[in-house]
Amino acid sequence: MAALAIDRCDGGPALNSDSELQVVAEGGRMRVLAVCVGIPEDRPGKTVRTGIHKQPINFAMSVTAEGLEDDAVCNRKHHGGPEQALCVEGNITRLWWEGLLNKAIPPGFFGENLCIEGLDNRIVALGDHFSIGNVVLEATAPRMPCRTLCEWLGDPAFAKRYLTAARPGFYCRVIESGRIAAGSSLKYEPFEGDRILLSEMMKHHGKRASPDLIHRYLTVPVHAKVRASLAQGSIKS
Q1: C-beta separation of 90 from 121 below 8 A
Q2: Span 116-159, pLDDT tens digits
Q3: Rounded distance, CA 147 to CA 150, Å?
Q4: Fewest 10 Å CB contacts: which of 25, 92, 128, 165?
């Protein structure tokens, strides 16, 4: 993992090394803060509906290879499916956005299914595992900002701000199915191979890739669409 100087959202001193940042992730404070689902809603002037407006639920929910039961996924071309069954957000990052935007950002606001207490999105790499009881999730790709997200926030320029922030939420495939609920403890297991941070992949997205970079991506359990794009010499999900 590349060295990072991380500003703490809890008011503490900056984290200047990988080991310090990893302590924040593995210090026993991780849990599921919220499980969120959405319903199909109309978009003004659009024919495709959206399920981006996620709301926390207060009961256990089944999760399968296709995602959370009863969660609306309206645009199957770009959302849902086994490679991005769940969208996840770290609560440390959510609080950072609250401060930056100077507005309340409740869990689910960015369209995520899970909000994880104690997690800073900047530590997450492709292939990292998150175990919640019997459920095991594997990070496959960063969440890329889309037009629907900008519309939802009422800010046409938000996609650029999101990319510049380099703190992306992320998609996961489901390795083991089961049930999850808010308050559940969570075990974070970093991928043991080459660590490609999600923020790093975000910078690579849509660009031509060198043979060395393609080799790096081929050694990690990346999103299937990204793996397919590597054959064309680019990185795209």
Answers
A1: yes
A2: 999 999 999 999 999 999 999 999 999 887 777 767 677 777 88
A3: 5
A4: 165
Buried b (16+ CB within 10 A) or exposed e, 129-138: bbbbbebbbb
Single out the residue of 128, 130, 165 nearest to residue 144, CA to CA.
Answer: 165
CA distances from 76 to 40, 50, 152, 171 (A): 13, 11, 18, 14
Q: Which residue type does 58 have? A: N
Residue 220 one-letter amino acid: V
pLDDT digits (tens, 9 = 90+) for 176-202: 999 999 999 999 999 999 999 999 999
**145, two tokens:** 């900002």
